[in-house]
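Person: Show me a sequence?

Helper:
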Amino acid sequence: MTAAQPTIIATSIGFRGAEGNPGDISAGPAYQHAARLARAGDHPRLCIIGTAVGDSPAWLSTFYGAFGRLGMRVTHLALFPMPNVPDVAGHLGDQDIIWVAGGSVANLLALWRLHGLDQVLAGCWAAGVVLMGVSAGSLCWHVGGTTDSFGPQLRPVTNGLGFLPYSNSPHYDAEAQRRPLAQQLIADGTLPDGFATDNGAGLVFYGTDLHEAITEDPGAQAYSITRTANGEITEAALPTRLL
């Protein structure tokens, strides 16, 4: 089956590393929640898109292990050096969940548009395939946000896919630059009103409406950030449900 409505889960939720072996990772309850929303049964089909990490074989292997432990039927779409599946649209359309890794959102957006993935993913979303991602894989669905794609000094990105008509700031509590820059960019009109997530938190959208904020970590929070008529910024913590 597919999701009951177009669904995007935009998160700052990564994986849990095994003690003493951080490369041995497991996927937490947010990913199982995505499978429930996809109405996918016991063995959901999940496709990893690792464009933002350059389709790194090492990272892909790690992701396969994490999702495989949940009983998911895992595949991936690589774009380097060429697409690894003959029918990209058909492969992605057959999934229950498409999960996008973090990394360089600037590179991700450029390559996706070059390969027409922006249109393919829009079609998957409309058809009920759950779109999910972390960091760059969270920001990409929005109009824009804050990114370290260009170097350690955060900069705005304003050419996101725009499926969700908001700005997005992941890692809101984890990097000192995130909060002030996100607020500044919304205040001066570079970015539209939007949302932010602490590490461990995520946002679930039905269509373009925020359905709820979720977290895997007690205390991790999601926020709305809005610009008032006089140009001031209002930040509000959202009710955030612990999974």
